[in-house]
């Protein structure tokens, strides 16, 4: 097995990413291009050993990749859906999943600490198995099972038969309505990290290697991401990115929300150290001007207010 092919894809990634490092849209297009190169290579690499895919399938990504909101660094969050169910077919796609995960790792994408990868049988299932899994998550309605539903609903098919994922998402929407899960989903994202203190100061990390930096992921991005996702589920939207969801939703100050969220994504690209995956979530506050700090405070406060407004709306309707 020639792993050098994946390493070459990684070198291509390193070269190209410098050219798009300050352009959110082009950066995410590059991530998609890399993933497709890895998929094509993985299929070629496994062909001599296990042959061609025995069933139509979809390779889908989740998390920030699913929402087209990746930074320079991104870990792996992905799964596989395949049509035909048999032990042989399952073995094939698990083997392919392991090859894909290895290929992405060698191309510069760290393994997911939580194991949300198609090399894991939990995230590599037949269509019927996925249908059963979705219903199991919904019926359990525990904090963990709701979290899995939220991860899945941000899924975006990037290779193969895209309709497979779309069909499963429609089952999620139907199940959420039937089981009246919207309020529980809302409760799952209640504990947001505060970004602005009572005195109007930015609340930076006070210990650890990111001391003095702002966790932009948890304090600023999550309020928008979680709120808009909740509304997307309520309205049965198949779109995954926060910006494309906002485009389709009836949200107070929609254009302002889109503008502020895009600014957040650009702040992350411009003012985080981007040394590795983790550091990409932290803003180096000392690099900001007074005006930029004030703008960031406004964006964070607006996101928190949007989150609170929508949560109350969901509670009233439920």
Q: How would you describe the overall organization of this protein?
A:
Helix content is 58%, strand content 8%. By secondary structure, the protein is α+β, with helices and mostly antiparallel strands. It folds into two domains: 4-178, Beta Polymerase, domain 2, CATH 3.30.460; 187-317. The strands form two sheets. Strands 3-2-1-4 form a four-stranded mixed β-sheet, with helices on both faces. Helix 5 packs across helix 6 and helix 11 crosses helix 12 (290-317). The model has no long low-confidence stretch (mean pLDDT 93).
**Tell me, what's the shape?**
globular
Radius of gyration: 20 Å
Number of helices: 12
Strand content: 5-15%
> What is the number of beta strands?
6
What percentage of residues falls in helices of 4 or more residues?
55-70%
Oligomer: single chain
List strands and helices in order, with pairings.
Blueprint: H1 4-19, H2 24-50, E1 57-61, H3 63-66, E2 78-82, H4 87-106, E3 124-126, H5 127-140, H6 143-153, E4 156-160, H7 163-178, H8 182-187, E5 213-215, H9 216-234, H10 242-248, H11 254-271, E6 282-284, H12 290-317
Helix pairs in contact: 1-2, 2-4, 5-6, 5-7, 9-11, 9-12, 10-11, 11-12
Features:
318 residues, alpha+beta, Beta Polymerase, domain 2, four-stranded mixed beta sheet, two-stranded antiparallel sheet, 12 helices, 6 strands
Outline:
With 318 residues, the protein is of the alpha+beta class.
